[in-house]
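Re: Re: token formats

Sure, here are both.
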Amino acid sequence: MRKNVFGRQFKRDANERKALFKNLLTSLVMEERIKTSTAKAKAIKAAADKLITKAKKALPAGRQGGRDAYRALEAEVNHHAVIKLIDDIAPRFAGRAGGYTRIIKIGNRVADNAPESVMEWTEKKVVKAIVTKKETSSSASSENRRATADKEEKKETPKKKVVAKKKEKKETKKK
């Protein structure tokens, strides 16, 4: 009987469980989205939220000043994940007090019918799109448009003829 026992065991001993959670958290930080079983996602949700809180504490002073927070983070995820967590992910959540992760249920796994989920950060990475302008004169661009329009017409014309011939054959068969 399990009375007042916290957490899920996943049929693993303590060291295997810690390694599993560390790998899942590292993957979440590096990939920013992981697909796993719902039970595992729920098990690491609190740890992922605590990672962000620790990274936010290390954020103002940087990596050198926040050594204690840096060491605490490195105990839970690998070195490259800590750097990404402090530099990229934690600044996104500067104005948020909690709720850093979301779990989206996606159905059951085919192999063993286990419920699966996608776990991701609530704040997405902002991607800035760089728009390049082609330097062409207005007359050249209008000529290009006309040429592409002519090509499209040429492509559509044979298809229309074939369709028209098929319709004629059907009409003659009906008569």
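Second one below.
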Amino acid sequence: MKIEVTLVNSFTAEGNGGNPAGVVFNADNLSDAQKLKIAQAVGYSETAFVSSDDKADYEVTFFTTTEEVEFCGHATLATFSTMYQTGMITAGSYVQRTKAGMLSVTVEPNGKVIMEQQLPKNLGSFSYPQISNIIGIDSKILESTKLPIEVISTGLSDVMIPVPNGYLDVILPNDEVIANFCKEHSVVGFHVFELCAPVSRFTASCRNFAPLLGISEESATGSASGALACYLTEHLNLGGDYIFEQGRAMNCTSIITASVEVSNSTIINVNVGGFVSNIGTVYISI
């Protein structure tokens, strides 16, 4: 049996860059083992599988090359943008069932996809010395940001790691060390960021490392971007709208927008959005 997989770059910057994802439609009869095999054959960080659902508009499951994950932002973007571009859906709002819950997705007439994420969960923190040796930046330098290192989840648990301006691109990640740390502490990966100057169009530049899931570095991470937006809303007075740049160190710059709604000092809504570009189609034999 041959399975058609649509290949899409998500969170592109004017059609360039982005993070590739695979999308498989009509996946109702595929087993988890078959989905994993397809994701491995595609070889991207995540592949989305779309099935029918009796309550939501669609059920979407996400597989890396090593395992299933509860949610994936850039693969969600790829899924709904592809459906819009191929005429399967029109502009409007939809609900997807994911392992992270029932989440709304809005497709704007210009093709931008905006997806709801889980409300943030603060799952703990780490000291500067705990992280400094892993990313190769002195703990005093990390401490100079005056921002904490925290685990935030809006679907997946990522470690938010602030670094001073100029230090982001010089990080040389050690996949084995990061993977062992993430496994020990039950987190998905490291989301390292540096704040941009007020005159910049970007709020922050980011890098994401998730080798535990087979992802050495990712050029655009939707779930972690929602978590970062919540983190910045909590610790800095930057307003509720954010634009993040990611993938620069990979020569694959991506742009991710995020918005956070607050009521009575409590975050009540988190959304992440962006644009995509189509790569093509492959067929995988299973």
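The CA atoms of residues 248 and 254 lie 8 Å apart. The helical segments are 32-42, 73-85, 128-135, 139-143, 175-185, 222-235.
- S.
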